[in-house]
Amino acid sequence: MKDKKQRHFAAALFVVMMIASVLAVMPAAQANLGLVTTDLNDPSVTPESLVNTLMGGGITVSNVTYTGANRAAGVFSGGTGIIGFESGIILSSGDIANVIGPNSHTATTTDNGMPGDEDLNSLIPGYTTFDAAVLEFDFVPTSNVIQFRYVFGSEEYNEYVNSPYNNVFGFFVNGNNIALIPGTTTPVSISNVNNGNPCPAGDYPPNANNPAFYIDNGGCDPASATLNTELDGLTVVLTATANVNPGVTNHIKLAIADAGDAILDSDVFIEAASFEAPKLTLTPLIDTNPIGTSHTLTAKLVDATGNPILGETITFTVTDGPHAGATGTDVTDANGEATWSYTGTNEGKDTIVATGAGKTSNEAYKTWEEAPIVLCPDEYRWNTSINPKGYKWDPFPTLFRAWNDVHFVNNGTGDAYNVIATITCAPVNVNIIDGNVTLGDIPAGGSAWSKDFFELEVDMTNPQGPDKGICWRVEYDDAAGVHHVIENVPKFCGENCSDICP
Fold first, then answer.
1. Most CB atoms within 10 A, among 31, 174, 236, 409?
2. CA angle, corner 176, sides to 173 and 182, nearest 5?
């Protein structure tokens, strides 16, 4: 019996020792259930396999190319709870292995000695990029929209927030960058998505930009990091969405690089199987309207081969924003399209999705703004405070001088304060002697006569057509104290100043 127990103990001890030895030689990330990376130096990983890793439904790809260092591109796993999705590909301005945690340094860097990229240079005018990693391919989608999910992270957080040293990345679909803050045309970057620059004695402005999309990970002090990655900061999971041409070849370029210098790594993670052409799409993707106007959305439903599906009920829902809960339905027509319109009543940004036939569309965004203040003149009169007739006639030479008041109306929904108007252009036979008038405050829907007058001298030997008028430069302050300047306000609303003064 003793020998049997000893054998069981020895066997158990051997198993424990084997496990310990395996853990001892495993990478730290794998032992800690963290990120595991494999770059292009591994024969099993190729540019083509990177693209295949990304592919979801409704896409066929061709002509895959990669430019950059082998260690700057590859695949990863173990991202759940760290990146926000389990697996996918990484492009880096340094070495993808440097994303493995824990965070032990604030300035991890790899200089690959590679050139930058001209498209990335265009995103940061005046600066040069280095160490670019660029993955490109052609694709044919079955629908009119493509989307994929990604996270951007960097060792430049937080010390270089709001500085010129901002590593840059872009997703260029048919030449247009779609790596944008949701619902905007603002590129995702270190200075555009952050929690400010809170590091002690920081060299750059501390103000935060779009902090709702940012996760700090010990950007000033690695000991305070909560995520098992070396990255000092990263975005939340974002979705890149683009309008594309269905059934034909489109092109995408995924690129990242150092900017301003070749140090401090940045990385972009793209989720596996997330690059797809949804069967139900919603457009326009982004739009802005003044309050009180109507916005129309179009949902398009297609089958796996891109053919439209007729007769399905589509539900449109505002899921977030000032009009959250607004909803409507329509039935797809022969083109697979259904539409819905709604009117904005409050300022802010709505998020809208469409559902139907068991599918959920991409998100679309609608920004509602306060209707603009519209100031324009609608009436003139000769002033009688200086001359009882408001004019003076001089036959030698033939000149007509007039002192005029002007009446301005505010057709907007906001109050205008401290309104001043200045004549900037008049017909060729008109000499502007004094082109300034003060109108004071004009409330929304209100109007005002000028508090003084403008003075013109007309050469009557050079008559102009009766449609000729004058153009104004109008200045005012809004309720927030912001000063506005409107150029080329015509003589009467609806006219075109270029017709008056080309």
1. 409
2. 90
